[in-house]
Amino acid sequence: MTSFTIQDVSRHSGLSEPTLRYYEEAGLVGPIGRDESSGHRRYQDEDLEVIEVLACLRAVGMGIEAMRTYLANRTRGRAAAAEQRDLLLRQAERIEAEISAQRARLGYLREKAALWDARDRGDAGAEAEAMRRVTDAVGRLELPR
């Protein structure tokens, strides 16, 4: 049976060694076996499979509790299919909201740059139009309260 060091798993998964240790402490993976002579972690193929899933979930911004739920549902298979779908769709909705917020920020920055460009050129008409667009863009920002 092949086993892998934490360095191997880190290189393969893209997750840092501290993250791998944290995921083990949090109960998301493992318990991971230890080398009898050195005490170092030795990951097995099935550990790598779970870690690959966790790396993907992390890449899409899923939190620890959602990861825990996902893994628990994964072992339940078809019986948990609807719950898995809903979990993933909730994360997709969060990402869509983030994208929308980022687009609003980008729009504001572009309109503000256009305003300063018009000022630089001394074009009062373009500056007035850019100011109107900046005001509209501010309305789309999520301002702190």
Task: Give the secondary structure arrangement, pairings included.
Layout: H1 6-13, H2 17-25, E1 33-34, E2 41-42, H3 45-59, H4 64-76, H5 81-121, H6 124-140
Antiparallel strand pairs: 1-2
Domain count: the total is 2
Question: Mind summarizing the main beta sheet?
Answer: 2 strands, antiparallel
What's the β-strand tally? Answer: 2
| Text of the CATH class of the largest domain | Mainly Alpha
Structural class: mainly alpha
Shape summary: elongated
Uncertain segments: none
Helix content: over 70%
String of helices and strands:
HHEEHHHH
Radius of gyration equals: 24 Å
Distance between the termini: 57 Å
Supply the number of helical segments: 6
Query: Main sheet: which strands, in order across?
Result: 1-2
Instruction: Report the β-strand fraction as a percent range.
Output: under 5%
Coiled coil: 78-105
Keywords: Coiled coil, DNA-binding
Protein name: MerR family transcriptional regulator
Domain HTH merR-type: 3-73
Describe the structure.
β1 (33-34) and β2 form a beta hairpin. This protein folds into two domains: 6-83, Multidrug-efflux Transporter Regulator, Chain: A, Domain 2 (Orthogonal Bundle); 95-140. It is built from six helices and two strands. The radius of gyration is 24 Å and the shape is elongated. With 145 residues, the chain is mainly alpha-helical. Helix content is 71%, strand content 3%. The model has no long low-confidence stretch (mean pLDDT 94). It has helices at 6-13, 17-25, 45-59, 64-76, 81-121, 124-140, and strands spanning 33-34, 41-42. α4 runs antiparallel to α5 (81-121) and α5 (81-121) packs antiparallel against α6. The N and C termini lie far apart (57 Å). The longest helix is centred in the last third of the chain and has 41 residues, at 81-121. The protein has a two-stranded antiparallel ribbon with strand order 1-2.
